């Protein structure tokens, strides 16, 4: 069986005041056309269909258009679960009716994990649910964190699993390998819970032949290829600019697994460029860009000037200022009370300008405060 594993569409996403809907539409329509040549048997969407619980109507229209085309034009079943960004109840509206068309949407946690058999493969749909909700739903006070919650939910189907068949779990969460966590999160991922209570150890999934995960935006495996994140379809933050976005085509039989990355060129890339202002003003691009300026002095109205050549500029920072601030002394209230006015000004100047105030400058500052009668 050949399965497309995708996740984290985040339809309706806005990044730095830019709506990503045009980019998402372009990507998903290109994906469908590409899949027509790939002879796949099923599609998995492992959570975060939308970027927020109340998505804009344009995002809902795009979701409906995409999922309908996948089912009708590709003629394959589509399995969708809710992620932590989705509204569990809203996403599964009319789910029973849609299942008749082989669109299986699981939004809310049930007392037992939903199983959908298809061509000798069992698909287990585990939508995201906070551990507090799972504890109340299962009436199990021993559930203290996300790992406990997932363990308890898996227990509801363990006795009925047939190890001679292909068993695939679709889930959304933060899965790690205990003692060897090499996961790579991104800035645009919303924490699932406080501290380390969001982590789930990969050992819980050993009975499955493949685990299709959503939540982390970089495509990556956890311990081995049997447990994978497909990553988000597009870049959604500066920290994701180094990513090479992809979905995965999974070819699976019992005791046989192959992963084929599928890359779709986006409408616009998202990149980070480090250069001087004068060099940047020589170029132009329609991509989404984050600028890291190497200039030691501030450039007046730099962002507006850059946007004349880069209309989708998303952010700007001065590298020298950032590096200076990262090592600057952070004075507490008592420290500040001990500093003289000239020293306070010197601290402020050096952090703001990202350059040292030289002796001549310090003398001028001291003279000014002296003239004001403020030496200490």
UniProtKB/TrEMBL annotation:
Family statement: Belongs to the SbcD family.
GO biological process, one term: DNA replication
Keywords of this entry: DNA recombination, DNA replication, Endonuclease, Exonuclease, Hydrolase, Nuclease
NCBIfam families: sbcd
Domain of life the protein comes from: Bacteria
Record-annotated Calcineurin-like phosphoesterase domain positions: 1-218
Protein name: Nuclease SbcCD subunit D
Function: SbcCD cleaves DNA hairpin structures. These structures can inhibit DNA replication and are intermediates in certain DNA recombination reactions. The complex acts as a 3'->5' double strand exonuclease that can open hairpins. It also has a 5' single-strand endonuclease activity.
Keyword Secreted: no
Domain Nuclease SbcCD subunit D C-terminal: start-end pairs: 266-351
Any one Gene Ontology molecular-function term assigned to this protein's record: 3'-5' exonuclease activity
Keyword Nuclease listed: yes
SUBUNIT field: Heterodimer of SbcC and SbcD.
